[in-house]
Every structure is written in structure tokens, then in C-alpha cells.
Amino acid sequence: MSEAIIQQWGGKEKVLLCFEKYCDLNPDMKLTNSYHNFLNTFSQSKPEYIFHTIHQDECKLVYGKHIDEILPEYCEKWDINTVMFILLGEASCNPSLNTYNKLANLGISLCFHWPDTSPGWAIDTMYSLEQLADLHVSWDVPKSDFHSSLPKLSNHLSLWAPQDKNLYKFKPYEEKNKKAAFYGRPFLERKNHLEHIKSKLNGFHFGGGQREESLSPEEYADAVADTKIILNFPAHGSGFSQLKSRVIEAMVCGSLMLELENDSTPTFFEAGKDYIPCSSVDDMITKAAYYLNNEEEAEKIALSGYNKYIKNYTGQHYWDLVFNNL
Length: 326
Prior knowledge:
There is one protein chain. By secondary structure, the chain is an alpha/beta fold. It has two domains: 3-158, Rossmann fold (3-Layer(aba) Sandwich); 173-312, 3-Layer(aba) Sandwich (Rossmann fold). It is built from 13 helices and eleven strands. The protein has helices at 3-8, 34-45, 56-61, 71-77, 97-105, 121-128, 145-149, 190-200, 217-225, 245-252, 281-293, 295-312, 315-325, and strands spanning 14-19, 50-55, 82-85, 109-114, 135-138, 156-158, 178-183, 204-207, 227-232, 256-260, 276-278. The protein has a six-stranded parallel beta sheet, sandwiched between helices. The longest helix is centred in the C-terminal third of the chain and has 18 residues, at 295-312.
């Protein structure tokens, strides 16, 4: 970007955020979580940039055009310096390889953010874009023999899901009204686990989020903040462990996180100090009951997780790392 253009906008460079608008690409499902994880955290953390947005699904659903017809011309017209992408699985509304090449040839930096790095499309696409991407940033810290066997990407940051500071807020432990809960999709073995926990743990609640109960982001965040103990199952549907956004959400809100043992969460948080690992679902039930009856201990661990988050893993930390590595 020329010095004259930068000066025209008060010294601020321009960043385009390119991501989906609707959950599951369906307008009836309301806005995607990328609005608060991606857009809101960027705007809160990087006021020194002017940001634009384009939604791949809206281009097709609303305007009847593929993003390939819009993106290069838009970037040239508005002097975009960097494009931040979240791609949409194998959806046809993703930009094509030809479009990425056009943007790179215009001197535009390309940064890809990956909420999920499961085998198949996500990993294949990351590696196929290695030469074009200035940076790949993943959110899930996957752990498996498959992921360990992959060749190292030279331009990859393994981070966490950034959280909107105006959405997820700390609530003192003694002010929380709900005992223990799981908020999320009850798919695969989760449903059986949750039914079992509900039959054994007094006061346990499980409910869906955006898809199952049509909770707004505000309603979901308020429910997490109002719950003393949040349970989590770190397994992806393909069988490997991940650092779920649920872990970060609970810690931001000062709730105690209990989850099945895994190798992903300990990458950033200390087991037994910042959260409680559980060897089995029955162990989770036993430990949840214990901490519900020993709230001083529960609060101490919840505060440790919260303080670790505030010191190291906020949205500001996330975006600082992204721009320091671009």
C-alpha cells in the first residue's frame, strides 16, 4: 500500500475480514459465531486498522454472485492491504485458488483462520495454500497420531478461539445461580454421556446452543457465566482431542471447567490448577459433586483459570500474535 493512501486514512491500513454471515449458511439460523469470535475481537483489539467485511455466503444467497466475481475488484477499489479468511468447509461459495493468486499478485497479504483442523478438507486445504498464505492460524490445538505425523507448516500459528470481551464476562462464583451444565451439541457419544450425568448429578443441566435451542450469543454467554461448573468433552467427531472454545468461555466467565483428560487443553492451561481433568464420565460426576460441595476449592481453581486467560489468552493476545507474525 502506498504511503499516500495510508496517509489519506489517517495512517491506518485496511484489513478485509472475509467469512460466513449465517450459521450453517442458512439465514434462518441467524448470524454465525464468527461475528463475535472473529469480527468483534478484531475490532476490539486492533483499532489502528480500518476493517471491511465480505461474506462468502451472502454474495451467493443475497446478491447472486460468487465471491470470485467480487473479491479482487473490491480489494483494488478500496486499497485493501490484508485479507483475513475463515473458509466454509467444502462449500462452493469459498474463493477459488485463482482468486487467491490474483490477491497475492496484487501484493495483498492473505491470512487464513481455522476454527477446526480435522483430517480431510481442512488439513488438505491448509497445505494446498502453504505457498500462497502469509499465515495460517488454527484455534483447536488438535492432538492425534495423524496430526503429529504431518510435516510442519512454516507459516502456521496454533492458537485458541478468541473471545469477545463484551460478550463473555467474569461473574463472581458466589453470584452464579446454576450448579453444573453442558452447553452445546449432544452428538455422537455425548448424548449418552449427558443422559448418564443427568441421572447421577443433582442439578445438572444440558442444553443446546444456536442450533438446538436457538440461543442468541448473548443468551449463551449469560448461561455460561451463571453456571458454577461447566463440563466439556474434548473429542472431535473423528476421534482426536481439541481445545474447545467452551473451555475458554468458561474460564473467561470465572466458571470451573471439568473435562475429560486430553492432550490439547494442557498446551495452554495447567491441569489441576486452572481446570479439573477427569479420567471418565463417572469420575466427572464424582468430581462435579465434590466441587459443588466444596465451593472455596472450586472458586480457587476457577479464578486460576480466569487469571491465566487474562494474562495470556485474550482476544488482544490473539490478534497481537497474528499481526506480529504476518
